[in-house]
Design goal:
- The structure is a homodimer.
- In chain A, about 40% of the residues lie in helices and about 15% in strands.
- Chain A is built from 22 helices and 18 strands.
- A seven-stranded mixed beta sheet of chain A has the order 9-14-13-15-16-18-17, sandwiched between helices. Chain A has a six-stranded parallel beta sheet with strand order 2-1-3-4-6-5, sandwiched between helices.
- In chain A, helix 22 links the parallel strand 17 (about 485-490) and strand 18 (about 510-515).
- At the A-B interface, helix 2, helix 4, helix 5, helix 9 and helix 18 of A face helix 2, helix 4, helix 5, helix 9 and helix 18 of B.
């Protein structure tokens, strides 16, 4: 083992720390890591043709596996290409270990074409950034990167690996570092929460890990005992849903609807959620969505023991053994005929979401009707974008499918969003991932048409509207998918969508549906 | 005019500073800028479906127009998506003005989903970063951003525009700021250069603006008088070439070939070029490519008056009125029959490069044979990637075509590179840009197969090789292009390529050729 180089010690140390999946787009400076993959069993490597696919896949993997994958990225520009989906991962509380190759130390000072400030690029999206100093350090640095990534709820850790530390002998395999525990219950806040949750003008606002099966069950029992309302944030990294589970709505995205939805609550208890704020600021409208006089009790944050907190709260309000409020029952919804309106699509989804399926939702405007309509669908897991940077959905679907090969993934993606990371389709084909993709093709950045009005622009002219349009030419998603090895079809109405989803779910590999809507 | 908001003052000030093209992917925080486009004539807006396309297009635009375009990007993640091509622009010395929307000041502290450290993301790729403080400041800030972008040879300037500064009244249109001049001739260095350039063991190494028509002509006269050799850097932002122009080779990319090419030179004079270094460090090989005892004279850097410097040097060595050495003559090359080998493709290109065409070269491994073979092609302009981050070619072709609507663009793009920014095809279709694209489809990150060996990895295993392969599934470029509204065809041999290029050049819009090679 004395001849082990730094790259091999890196791979072995990652595996020792239970990182066993690598989403990668490597370059020259990462060739030793790539070579080590053949020497060391236990690391599944998945090639992405664009780094944003790799980082988004790592995000989706963490959400479903509950442990980090690593990415392997080529220097500063490779990291830069993955930055937007690392932003989303950071906001979702997903743990990711980025391995970023760097020039050999002696080469950095020469300012070669690919030289850049890698740490500077990493910092805005990383909780932890470190550059290895020598081959002997690489293993221990990797273990610390995994530790950082596993710090609850999950963090983005970026390890910069100069190529000479990878190719030089003297690598040492490191044992895993201890993972920091979740924060403990704040008993003072618990007392205040118990007092606050009383009747329909009180709200238990859930986020993060509070939306697990156990967390939802406890929340439902708390609601049954106290009469409080339950809501989740607009975007949730992962939420368990469907028939048999406590149905929890969301604070709406449109600012006026959000203000309305929260206007009745005088007391809000936060468990894994943050105090509700608007996505954007709008002229003349508040950004804080709760009423001015609302009492807000931050009971537990994203890094705390959320299920334990909800159990303690349930115990305190006498919720043990009580039937949870708001449990969804299996709908029997008729197949809508005619056009694929948002409501008709929602009805089809309510019928077709597969049992134990994973729904990756980047449906933007068209999808606002989906959530309420699917509380009575088969039990499933719902993933949202928490960082607002579009292009998250197709990559996250890859990661979810890799982490959960036994479950079917249904990805609902707006056409504008899908065009950010279309390369994801190729990786789905190569890995034969069980993903059915519905592209909601409204040929527009439809959300921005509304936002023009919301920010006070009346009667936008043709040049403005043209900047929000995806037509001229229309995108042909079925052709693009075929070009990347993914089969698919086009659907134009609700029955056509249902038949297409049925076909997609019946195949074990990826399948793309372009839905005119 | 008292009612003008910040956004309108921004657009008017940019136009006053001669910025008349905007490559954009806007979001909510940029809606007022978009709205202002209808009020203010004179700004051409080009929509990109991914920000890396917008920033790469701005790079290509600068190279051909000689003045900056602006980009309009949505918050930190939108900027992040454009970062890799800004890295390339920075390394090419291209001037770009980025306008990046930001939340209103009061919203930033709420840490909304899209909140990020925009300045932190911008800094690694920007020479100048500034956030506007109020609507009244926006116009003057825009003028200063353009000034920074026009600082020779060209810089990346990033102006962060909080949405309240865009929507608030009180905008002021600013006059243009003075553009800093180019650096003056260093007469001491000129004396040393005159002494150094003497015979075939002396090299005049050219880069940047020295590769203009006038610069090449002066260099050719200097070579005729002194017997020095002429070379350019491996990557050049823009080089004039073809029959009737002084043919200048390049320092090769492969490290051993580069060392060989430079081994004979005891004296190297740099004009717009940097001292030659390797792209990457390799174990046991030098990174500085010139011989250890070489005298290196930095006569003029990228920001200096390069044509003036070469003229002065030519005058000093008695080059006035002398015939330039190494002028390329029009080849009469036969059409190769059979497979599309690199040499056969090069021959086809030598025949088919259109008169006054613009060649955007991201041909990577396959393209190494192209350069030498095309010195006798019709006169043309050749653009290289100076930052090494792949995915530059298709976007740069957009910018070149927008800047030079009267010229034909021929883009030579490796399949791996093209997959980084395929969304560029849609913008080409929408704008009906006169671009003929040859995708060099070798189904592999072929360059990395060589690099595995170069960094000392012998006999890579199947898992390593799989990470460098673009097959399983093969990419169908013609289908992908059609899905984005671009017509095309597939070619499998040299005569097929020539016929396909002929068809592409005959159309006035974009045309894609997938070449099996």
């Amino acid at each position: 083992m004395t001849e082990m180089n730094g790259a091999e010690s890196l791979v072995r140390s990652l595996i020792a720390s239970d990182v066993e999946t690598c989403f990668t787009n490597p370059g020259t400076s990462e060739m030793h890591f790539v070579a080590a993959l053949d020497k060391v069993p236990g690391m599944r490597s998945v090639l992405a043709l664009f780094e944003g696919v790799a980082t988004g896949a790592a995000d989706g993997y963490f959400r479903m596996a509950g442990k980090p994958a690593c990415t392997l990225l080529h220097l500063g520009p490779g990291l830069a290409n993955g930055l937007a989906n690392l932003h989303n991962a950071k906001k979702a509380g997903s743990g990711v270990v980025n391995i970023v190759g760097e020039h050999a130390a002696s080469h950095i000072e020469l300012d070669a074409p690919l030289t850049s400030d890698i740490a500077g690029i990493a910092r805005p999206v990383s909780h932890w950034v470190h550059a290895s100093a020598s081959a002997a350090d690489v293993g221990a640095d990797a273990a610390r990167a995994v530790q950082a990534a596993r710090t609850p709820p999950g963090q983005v850790a970026t390890l910069i690996l100069p190529s000479d530390t990878a190719w030089t002998a003297g690598g040492q395999v490191a044992d895993p570092c201890a993972v920091p525990g979740r924060g403990h219950l704040d008993t003072g806040a618990l007392e205040r929460a118990i007092a606050a949750l009383d009747g329909p003008d009180s709200l238990l606002l859930l986020g993060g890990g509070a939306l697990s099966d156990a967390g939802l069950d406890a929340a439902g029992r708390i609601a049954a005992r106290t009469g409080c309302a339950l809501l989740s944030e607009w975007s949730n990294a992962r939420m368990e849903r469907g028939a048999g589970r406590v149905a929890v709505g969301k604070v709406p995205y449109p600012i006026d609807l959000a203000l309305q939805a929260l206007a009745g609550f005088r007391r809000i208890v936060l468990v894994g959620a943050r105090a509700p704020i608007g996505f954007f600021a709008y002229p003349g409208k508040p950004a804080i969505l709760s009423r001015d006089d609302a009492e807000i009790i931050a009971l537990a944050g994203a890094g705390d023991d959320l299920t334990g907190t909800l159990d303690a709260l349930s115990d305190a309000v006498g919720g043990v053994g009580v039937a949870a409020a708001g449990v969804g029952t299996r709908h029997d919804i008729a197949l809508p005929q005619g056009a694929a309106t948002p409501e008709a699509i929602a009805a089809v989804l309510a019928r077709m979401i597969p049992d134990d399926g994973i729904v990756v939702d980047e449906s933007i405007t068209t999808g606002r009707a989906f959530f309420a309509a699917t509380t009575g669908a088969a039990p499933h897991t719902w993933l949202n974008n928490c960082g607002g940077s579009i292009g998250y959905g197709l990559p996250v679907a890859i990661g979810a499918a890799v982490a959960s090969p036994e479950r079917k993934v249904l990805a609902l993606i707006g056409d504008g969003s899908a065009m950010y990371t279309p390369q994801a389709l190729w990786t789905m084909a190569r890995e034969q991932l069980d993903v059915t993709i519905v592209i909601l093709a409204n040929r527009s950045y439809e959300i921005l048409r509304g936002e023009l009005t919301n920010v006070g622009v009346q009667n936008p002219g043709p040049r403005a509207v043209d900047m929000l349009s995806l037509s001229r030419p229309d995108l042909g998603w079925v052709e693009m998918a075929r070009g990347m090895g993914v089969d698919g079809c086009r659907a134009g109405d609700a029955p056509g969508l249902e038949a297409a989803i049925r076909a997609g779910l019946a195949t074990s590999g990826p399948y793309l549906i372009e839905l005119d809507c």
